[in-house]
Amino acid sequence: MSRLDTKQRILDAAEQLFARDGFHRTSLRAITSKAKVNLAAVNYHFGSKKALLEAVFERRLLPLNRTRKERLEEVLQNARKRGVRPEVRDIMRAFIEPTFRFRESEPGAQDFIKLIGRSIVTPDSTAKTVLLRFMKPILKTLSEALTEALPELPKDVLLWRLYFSIGALAHTMHLDKRFQFEPLNLKAETDVKSLTNMLITFVTAGMEAS
Amino acid sequence: MSRLDTKQRILDAAEQLFARDGFHRTSLRAITSKAKVNLAAVNYHFGSKKALLEAVFERRLLPLNRTRKERLEEVLQNARKRGVRPEVRDIMRAFIEPTFRFRESEPGAQDFIKLIGRSIVTPDSTAKTVLLRFMKPILKTLSEALTEALPELPKDVLLWRLYFSIGALAHTMHLDKRFQFEPLNLKAETDVKSLTNMLITFVTAGMEAS
DNA sequence: GTCTATACGATGATAGAC
DNA sequence: GTCTATCATCGTATAGAC
Q1: Tens of pLDDT along A100-113?
Q2: Residue range B186-197: average pLDDT?
Q3: Which residue, among A171, A197, A199, A210, would best test binding to B if mutated, counting the most B CBs under 10 Å from its CB?
Q4: What SS3 class is residue A178?
């Protein structure tokens, strides 16, 4: 079995299991048996369970955040060209839409988006620390863009509203075919596109509230 | 040592550790040594680790949700008396404000609110299942109140927006003295009252978006 | 009834021989 | 790269002291 195949298969298996059960509840035994590799292969290829998690994040987050950055810069440049402020809605769309686009585009990406969602909201976890390190640059870009769009809003209010938006987004990332939020009778039947639009409408209104 | 003391001390210790480390990462040994009771005391008094979690939820959630229910009914009755629709803002305030009031009122309550926050957003976890069972009635009351306030909004849009609001709320429940959201440079210095108001403003605008 | 001491079987991560 | 051994820790059960 080639070295590349082994690493890939471990990454795929880890991504699925971390998303389903969380980092700490996923055992290396579960990962390696799903990937059909030896138990010790993880430590050989990645060094540790935590380093494996970092590799899982890195593989998908680098391209996803590159897309987000391009779209954000596009929004800002268009506004500058036309001599107007960027629209909050366009900024939020530039950040949120790639999440769900990406989620539909690649096999395994859905598990990954779920993993991000659960990582960002789990306090003091290994996964959160690792994730935020990858997210810091794009979140800086995002908050700067919002400051251009809402210059009269006090900076701390803007940042808290962005924090609330991230909470709403993260909560929405858990969706999968089996999703349901039983207390509200919500089911996964809603198509992704209109769900994305509902979320963008929601956070835009929240950011722009007077 | 009296029976009551032992149970209380186990509940207090479990609440702190579940909030800090999550259900699965917290061992009974950690709980019993923190509570200074014998390892077997948990199984004796509660039956199992999961039953202990249920008891932790029950102790604080029953009074908290009773307060929420009273305040929601007050809002609805006032509106009916005056022959007008209830205001979304008042409804959201009736649900959210007790959370943070409660959080400041009792020692240990802050840990509990953190525990709820992390439980609601962790998919497929034991804690989420247990929590939602306790939350179902009050969430039903809340969604009915919102339907009265926003009768022209399609029901599924209303429910998704409520779902987003819960995400924003849950994300905000993690706050403690040591809280910081490093990528946005957010710190815990903001006082709870204005934070509560910011959150209410945010979700109200989101619910009312056109 | 309450609590303690201890043991059991399962599973955790990892190190070293090959 | 793999296999095996090892050792820590897990939740739970039980026998018996008070």
Answers
A1: 998 888 888 888 99
A2: 88
A3: A171
A4: coil
